[in-house]
Amino acid sequence: MVNPGEVPTASVSDLPSQDLVLLDVREPDEWAAGHAPEAVHIPLGELPARAAELAELPDDKPLYVVCRSGGRSARAAMWLNAAGIADAINVAGGMKSWHTEGRPLVGDREGVPPEVL
Questions:
Q1: Is 78 helix (H, G, I), strand (E, B) or coil?
Q2: What is the rounded CA–CA span in Å between residue 46 and residue 25?
Q3: What are the φ and ψ backbone dihedral angles of 8, each rounded to 5 degrees?
Q4: Domain boundaries, the chain
Q5: Per-residue pLDDT for the chain (117 aa), expressed as one digit of tens each?
Q6: Listing from the earlier edge strand, what are the strands of the sheet with 63-66?
Q7: Max Cα-Cα span within the chain
Q8: Is 67 a catalytic residue?
Q9: pTM of the model
Q10: Where are the alpha helices (DSSP H) in the chain?
Q11: What is the CATH number of domain 25-44+56-107?
Q12: 3-state secondary structure at position 92
């Protein structure tokens, strides 16, 4: 088991502004409320069963993993790295920091502005 302190981590301000490969591991209701426009959504609990989908993502760039505040994404990044599936980096502060930093947010709920649950 990898020590959580050993999980590669980046702050939102350190993320590339273009060609960002972002995996959102939050639950469907959190995703629908607000998410990064280009993110791929695979809830943490579904990650092992859907790991093959990650093979379709570019493998020449790191995979940034995000949740609401950084806890679930740290576990996901740890698992992805340990399993050799991706060069995964946890996004510190999660979507809360994403939103605070003014990064774009889109939602799936009609007539409701996007928000981070």
A1: helix
A2: 9
A3: -60, 135
A4: 25-44+56-107
A5: 445 568 999 999 999 988 899 999 999 999 999 999 999 999 999 999 998 898 888 888 899 999 999 999 999 999 999 999 889 999 999 999 999 999 999 999 999 999 999
A6: 9-11, 88-92, 63-66, 22-24, 40-41
A7: 44
A8: yes
A9: 0.93
A10: 28-33, 47-54, 71-82, 94-100
A11: 3.40.250.10
A12: strand
Name the one residue in this structure whose structure tokens are 């088991």.
1
* 46 Cβ neighbours under 8 A, 6+ residues apart: none
Determine the length of the chain: 117
Phi, psi of 73 (to 5 degrees): -70, -30
| DSSP 8-state code for residue 64 | E
Which of the following is catalytic: 42, 67, 77, 92?
67
Amino acid 90 reads: N
Do residues 63 and 21 lie in contact, with contact meaning Cβ atoms separated by under 8 Å? yes
